[in-house]
Inverse folding.
């Protein structure tokens, strides 16, 4: 029984079957990758997991509880964090505040009327946030506006914001999309380090085979909204069905 | 002051000193000089400074922090005024119950309007608040002022206190004007500085007679003003607390990126609603104080142009900054009074040193912008601010300060100034 | 039954004005993505074009009329409009009488110019700024325009009558078999309604059947792609702004005989027009027109006495009430598209 169990999920957009009978099981503390050509339904699946979309049928269970019908912030409070394809951060706030906000969310829940306390007095949470920033080597940038960071730093900041919540499941939506080779490698190292250090379950949606094969312990191949194969990386590499799905996408 | 940073304490102290000494600061020109018309230290105007200051501080908590642009905040001001006058009618002229009720009623009112309006964002939110405010205005103006039904607002005439009203708590010796446990709001002590001796009455005093020849200054210390000023300082302090609190940080996060906030496990809705209600209560307080200074309430206070005014004040001063709204409110109310007093005669006397042709040219050129044309000046000024200084007067001040700072330490300071700019402003 | 028809007719002229203003607002919003709070001011400028035109046409000089004497026995001086000199007395009088419709000739170039100057000089710089900034700067502009008009023309409403021929009323009831004088309808309101239908039709035809209109519609749907095709969409959008200004201006010109123009008429109509646009669905042209007429007529029905007896004051709040209900149940308005203004 995995920490995330997706069973028979269907989603239609008008005449288009975006997801057809998707089954997926992510084991605790593993790195699970979902790959597939463009338009395979990867992003739709991810959106169904975090409450942005509601599947037409099927079930999505996280740690024995259904996430369907819950709002994104409730699902996050259950322990699922999400990293976006283009980093979503609070651009008008400082880097430190960006990391503090998830700290508050973790301690105080979805809403608390702490209007008479001051941020500066929250020693414990500040230490936690500063610690996290040290972990991702951004301690010296803590006073900068998040919007003025470089793209790579924004990505790291977003990761830090997710990790500081100690989520039980981290969803990553193409974390290396649009990155140069060197940046991609850095990100792979960062993710490896995070996985080793935080003992976290990760589910990566990815296009770049390099990233997938150097990180994932299990891979699900999605094509036209349905899972083709689910297996360990070594066996995915030469799989005929995968080749077929990726025909023309040379990297396999 | 526990938990506030030093610069915030400094800001609060400066504002406190300025407000408490406003009767002196605002009357810098001798009362018998030609410049006396630019004095702004008379009670009525000073009361308006701080009351609109409160209104704008509250509006800023919503707009400045969350970015939700309400075009209907005057409705809460109006509701506050009506509640206060009702307290005068039913209980008596003490302002405490009036102010309490105005804050509570405005708060309840804003819970309802906020709960519905905040289901939408952006322009839809603006239009919804506008629609609610216009509806309240129409209701107050006609329906609720209809003697045949329930007469809550007294329609066009406006709500006021009549001798026949019950005023159950009105003691035999209590004054027949708005008061704070007997201290009449209209009570004013004049301090005369210099000049020749004059007939003094009541609490008036005369200092240093004859020290400056005929020239004298007159300072009005008004009870109503100080009540409003103290309340403004309290709510200003509260607004600093909110700005520096985790709650305030969440509100700024709402403005910055709601999507991320959602995926960080926070629910933006209660945060925005709380901000909306707080700012509604500020507006209610302002309305209650307005009625406490002059026990009248009319529907025109709720009209959308009144909502537009507080938007102007906040933006002009600097939305999202602590001091901006207060500056904006003072600025607009000051110039509204002063500009509208400048007529052609005054202009002629200014340019009298010029040759007549030039003098007339200047007067003709300036004529549209002063006197009754004050709104034109305000409109132009507002546009210039939105276009060139989105941070309002505060940003203007910062830019000037930075410019001066750079010039002084042209060499070493450059990098530092650069670093300072990259840091978040607040 | 006769009362119902009467209220329906009464709602048409107000609805026409709402529809025309909302149409322009939607054109600007749909093409440029700008929320224009100064649109009411354009309506007002149009109305004052009519005032200016009728003043220009009645410019006159004094001549001594030897045939008449004043009360002191001296020959009387009378004002003779220049148009009388140029076109003869009968034609001159006719021209002055028809000042309002003639003003359209003045209003079209003036409004086009005002629109283009506004877009190039100000709005252009706000395409990339947040909607709140757009609202604020156009709000400031509206104040400025309104104050200028106030200074030039004064604060009082200026009566601007319709041509003599249209001053009466049409007895509609007789035509439908009711008693005489049960349903009478001023001719000019009929003219206004017909005029607005023509303008609305013309705008739609223009967008539907011309290449220019096709490009603009494509631009409304997806500005970036159209730009990528190498089409200079900006220049067309500037002209669209001019067109929207003309529509608002003409609505103002023709409205002058119904309500004497004053400097705050723009703001009065603006608030309601925005409600209309939002009810119709931000960015939907048919929505704006439909909602304009719908709300105009609804407001007219709500002001019927027996309805006011049941729910007092309903005529004052009906539009806002409907707007709130629609926004809450159909967030995109009656005919709104998905994804417009949803940040």
């Amino acid at each position: 029984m995995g920490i995330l169990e997706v069973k028979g999920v269907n989603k239609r957009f008008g005449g288009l079957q975006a997801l057809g009978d998707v089954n997926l099981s992510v084991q605790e503390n593993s790195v699970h990758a979902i790959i597939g050509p463009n338009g395979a339904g990867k992003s739709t699946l991810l959106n169904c997991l975090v409450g942005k979309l509601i599947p037409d049928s099927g079930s999505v269970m996280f740690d024995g509880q259904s996430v369907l019908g819950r709002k994104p912030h409730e699902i996050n409070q259950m322990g699922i964090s999400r990293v976006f394809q283009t980093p979503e951060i609070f651009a008008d706030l400082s880097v430190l505040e960006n990391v503090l906000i998830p700290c508050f969310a973790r301690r105080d829940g979805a809403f608390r009327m702490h209007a008479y306390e001051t941020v500066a007095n929250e020693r414990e949470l500040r230490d936690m946030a500063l610690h996290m920033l040290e972990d991702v080597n951004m301690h010296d940038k803590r006073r900068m506006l998040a919007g003025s960071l470089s793209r790579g730093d924004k990505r790291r900041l977003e990761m830090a914001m997710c990790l500081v919540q100690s989520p039980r499941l981290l969803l990553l939506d193409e974390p290396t999309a649009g990155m140069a080779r060197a940046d991609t490698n850095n990100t792979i190292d960062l993710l490896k380090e995070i996985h080793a250090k935080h003992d976290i379950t990760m589910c990566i949606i990815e296009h770049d085979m390099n990233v997938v094969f150097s990180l994932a312990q299990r891979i699900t191949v999605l094509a036209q909204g349905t899972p083709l194969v689910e297996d360990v990386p070594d066996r995915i590499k030469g799989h005929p069905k995968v080749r077929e799905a990726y025909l023309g996408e040379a990297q396999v | 002051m526990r938990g506030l940073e030093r610069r915030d304490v400094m800001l609060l102290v400066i504002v406190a000193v300025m407000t408490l000494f406003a009767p002196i600061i605002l009357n810098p020109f001798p009362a018998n000089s030609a410049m006396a018309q630019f004095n702004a230290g008379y009670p009525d105007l000073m009361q308006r400074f701080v009351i609109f200051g409160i209104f704008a501080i509250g509006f800023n908590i919503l707009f400045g922090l969350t970015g939700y642009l309400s075009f209907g905040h005057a409705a809460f001001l109006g509701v506050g005024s009506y509640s206060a006058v009702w307290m005068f009618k039913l209980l008596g002229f003490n302002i405490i119950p009036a102010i309490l009720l105005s804050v509570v009623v405005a708060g309840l009112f804003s819970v309802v309007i906020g709960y519905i309006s905040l289901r939408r964002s952006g322009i839809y939110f603006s239009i919804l608040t506008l629609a609610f405010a216009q509806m309240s205005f129409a209701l107050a103006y006609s329906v609720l002022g209809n003697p045949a039904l329930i007469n809550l607002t007294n329609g066009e005439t406006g709500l006021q206190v009549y001798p026949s009203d019950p005023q159950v708590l009105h003691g035999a010796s209590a004054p027949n004007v708005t008061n704070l446990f007997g201290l009449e709001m209209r009570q004013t002590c004049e301090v005369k500085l210099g000049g020749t001796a004059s007939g003094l009455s009541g609490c008036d005093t005369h200092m240093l007679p004859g020290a400056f020849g005929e020239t004298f200054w007159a300072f009005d210390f008004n009870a109503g003003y100080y009540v409003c000023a103290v309340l403004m300082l309290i709510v200003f302090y509260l607004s600093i607390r909110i700005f520096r609190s985790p709650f305030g940080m969440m509100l700024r996060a709402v403005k910055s990126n709601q999507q991320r906030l959602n995926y960080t496990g926070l629910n933006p809705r209660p945060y925005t609603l709380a901000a909306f209600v707080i700012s509604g209560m500020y507006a209610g307080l302002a309305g209650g104080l307005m009625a406490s200074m002059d026990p009248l309430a009319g529907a025109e206070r709720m009209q959308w142009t009144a909502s537009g005014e507080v938007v102007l004040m906040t933006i002009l001063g600097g939305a999202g900054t602590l001091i901006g709204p207060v500056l904006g409110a003072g600025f607009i109310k000051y110039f509204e009074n002063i500009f509208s007093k400048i007529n052609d005669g005054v202009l002629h006397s200014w340019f009298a040193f010029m040759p007549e042709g030039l003098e007339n040219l200047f007067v003709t050129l300036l004529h549209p912008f002063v006197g009754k044309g004050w709104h034109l000046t305000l409109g132009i000024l507002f546009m210039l601010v939105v276009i060139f200084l989105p941070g309002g007067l505060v940003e203007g001040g910062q830019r000037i300060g930075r410019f001066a700072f750079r010039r002084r330490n042209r060499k070493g300071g450059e990098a530092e100034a650069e670093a300072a700019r990259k840091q978040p402003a607040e | 039954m006769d009362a119902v028809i009467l209220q329906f007719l009464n709602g048409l002229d107000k609805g026409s004005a709402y529809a025309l203003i909302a149409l322009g607002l939607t054109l600007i919003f749909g093409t440029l993505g700008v929320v224009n709070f100064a649109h009411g001011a354009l309506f007002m400028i149009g109305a004052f074009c009519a005032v200016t035109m009728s003043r220009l046409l009645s410019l006159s000089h004094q001549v001594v009329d030897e045939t008449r004497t004043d009360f002191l026995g001296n020959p009387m001086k009378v004002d003779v409009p220049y148009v009388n000199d140029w076109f003869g007395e009968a034609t001159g009088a006719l021209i002055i009488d028809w000042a309002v419709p003639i003003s359209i000739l003045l209003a079209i170039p003036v409004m086009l110019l005002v629109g283009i100057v506004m877009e190039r000089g100000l709005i252009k710089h706000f395409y990339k700024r947040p909607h709140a900034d757009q609202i604020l700067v156009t709000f400031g502009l509206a104040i400025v325009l309104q104050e200028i008009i106030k200074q030039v023309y004064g604060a009082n409403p200026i009566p601007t009558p319709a041509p003599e021929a249209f001053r009466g009323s049409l007895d509609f009831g007789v035509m439908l078999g009711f008693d005489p004088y049960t349903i009478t309808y001023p001719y000019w309101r009929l003219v206004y309604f017909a005029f607005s239908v023509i303008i609305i039709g013309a705008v739609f035809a223009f967008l539907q059947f011309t290449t220019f209109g096709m490009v603009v519609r494509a631009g409304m749907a997806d500005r970036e792609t159209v730009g990528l095709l190498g089409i200079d969409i900006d220049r067309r959008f500037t002209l669209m702004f001019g067109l929207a200004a003309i529509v608002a201006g003409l609505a103002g010109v023709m409205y002058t005989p119904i309500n004497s123009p004053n400097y705050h008429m723009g703001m009065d109509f603006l608030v309601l027009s925005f409600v209309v646009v939002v009810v119709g669905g931000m960015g939907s042209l048919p929505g704006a027109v439909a909602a304009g007429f719908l709300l105009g007529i609804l407001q007219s029905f709500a002001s019927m006495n027996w309805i006011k007896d049941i729910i007092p004051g309903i005529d004052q709040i009906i539009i806002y009430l409907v707007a709130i209900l629609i926004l809450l149940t159909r967030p995109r308005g009656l005919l709104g598209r998905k994804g417009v203004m949803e940040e």
